[in-house]
Amino acid sequence: MLAINQSDYQLIDLAISGDDRAFQLLVERHQRVVATASMNMVGDMDIAQEIGQQTFIRFYKAMRSFKKEAKLSTYLTRIAINLSLNHLKRNQSFAKRSLDLGKADNVQTASDSFDNKQVVNMALQMLDDKHRSVVILRMIQGYSTNETAAILKIPKGTVLSRLKRGLDKLKKHLKEDLKYERN
Amino acid sequence: MKEINQLLKKQQHDFNRDFSSTVLQATQSIKDHSPAAQWFVLGAVATIGICIVSTYLLEGQLNIDTLLGTDGLYFDTLINYPNIL
Questions:
Q1: B40 vs chain A: nearest CA distance in angstroms?
Q2: Which B residues 21-50 touch A at CB under 8 Å?
Q3: From CA A146, how far away is CA A130, in angstroms rounded?
Q4: From A178, which residue of chain B is nearest by alpha-carbon distance?
Q5: In degrees rounded to 5, what are phi and psi of residue A68?
Q6: Which positions in chain B touch A34 (Cβ < 8 Å)?
Q7: Which of A78, A112, A95 is closest to A43 using CA atoms?
């Protein structure tokens, strides 16, 4: 019997035994983590949704070998970030990247201040991929420095330096953009 | 900086409502539809069984020669075979 309060590991066991509803429940439970990581990384909800699908399909394929000491949300975030970075590498030029943030029909905002959200998203896209990924994991998704280092497979010191650099750049962009928004 | 931190915390996103159904649909196409290993074993056992039963019914006896179909093979035939050619 499937229940909402079942742990991720219990749902994984049920999904492995062929219970599709258990897998769907896992997707529903963790879609926000994946959406937040991929959307903030690529800045386009259509691309983020594709990355999200790929993330869960990869998890589905690797479900049997998933080590249960790992946290599922961290595991999914790692896949989503890596897939996003791969996508960005393939589409290196900033000009090529779709920054059509007006696709509000595809974006269900979790915040009431959609305008600020757009501005912050735009400012995030101005950062280098390596700085953006650290800012997203540390400041938006709330991972610790250790967890961020583990997800990105970089030393702790690098996380701290990239975070400082990223936040400084973000502050600079936002200072101008938000001032402009308010006027 | 505090304001930026607050703004960043609000950068949470959600996929469309039917996202989980779309993912589930995608997983259906990659599902392994091959039968379980026990069916291959069962198939092999059944084949050997049918072979034994049909050999017994056709030959009236069951031994290694009848099973291999070499009961009608004579040594003389083998010796003379090259001369026929």
A1: 21
A2: 21-24, 26-27, 30
A3: 16
A4: B4
A5: -75, 0
A6: 15
A7: A95
Q: Domain ranges for chain B, please list them.
A: 2-27+36-84
- Of residues B12, B13, B22, nearest to A53 (C-beta): B22
Would you say residue A60 has pLDDT above 90? Answer: yes
Domains and CATH numbers, chain A: 1-103 (1.10.1740.10), 109-183 (1.10.10.10)
Taking only Cα atoms into account, the Rg of chain B, rounded to an integer number of angstroms, comes to 34
A77 in Cβ contact with A37 (< 8 Å) = yes
pLDDT of A105 reads 42
Nearest CA in chain A to B4: A171
Please compute the mean of the pLDDT values over residues A82-111 and round it to a whole number. Answer: 62
Question: Can you give the length of chain A in residues?
Answer: 183
**Inter-chain residue contact A45 with B9, CB threshold 8 Å:** no
Nearest CA to A130 out of A78, A106, A174, A166 is that of A166
Interface contact B8, partner A, CB < 8 A: yes
Instruction: Please tell me the predicted confidence (pLDDT) of residue A108.
Output: 45
Say if CB A14 and CB A22 are below 8 A apart. Answer: yes
pLDDT of A96 above 50: no
Set of chain B residues whose Cβ sits within 8 Å of the Cβ of A48? 13, 15
Range list of β-strands (E), chain A: 108-109
A6 CB-contact burial (10 Å; exposed 0-12 / middle 13-18 / buried 19+): middle
> Are A165 and B35 a contacting pair, CB within 8 Å?
no
Per-residue model confidence as pLDDT tens for chain B (85 residues): 788 888 899 999 999 999 999 999 999 887 766 677 888 999 999 999 999 999 999 888 888 888 888 777 776 666 666 665 5
**β-bridge mates for residue A109, sequence order:** B13
